[in-house]
Amino acid sequence: MHKVVPAEGLLEEALSLAKELAQGPTRAYALTKKLLLETYRLSLTEALALEAILQGEAGRTQDHEEGVKAFREKRPPRFQGR
What we know:
This protein has helices at 10-22, 26-39, 44-59, 62-72. By secondary structure, the protein is mainly alpha-helical. It has a single domain, classed as Lyase 2-enoyl-coa Hydratase, Chain  A, domain 2 (Orthogonal Bundle), CATH 1.10.12. The model has no long low-confidence stretch (mean pLDDT 93).
């Protein structure tokens, strides 16, 4: 996400974004970051294989279960980072 804000509103905007991200699926964010950092040294085939492994790991988290449940119940998810 990109956003331009006046200098005097930068801290407030940054804190707002940080709070929003902290409420998200932080375990999935960590797995995504891991994949992005690793892909610079991997071939396409290796990167896709790692992605498949990490997708499987993400799909076994409690946050994944909560996300699916919240979607079905048409409510905001309550992620715990697990």
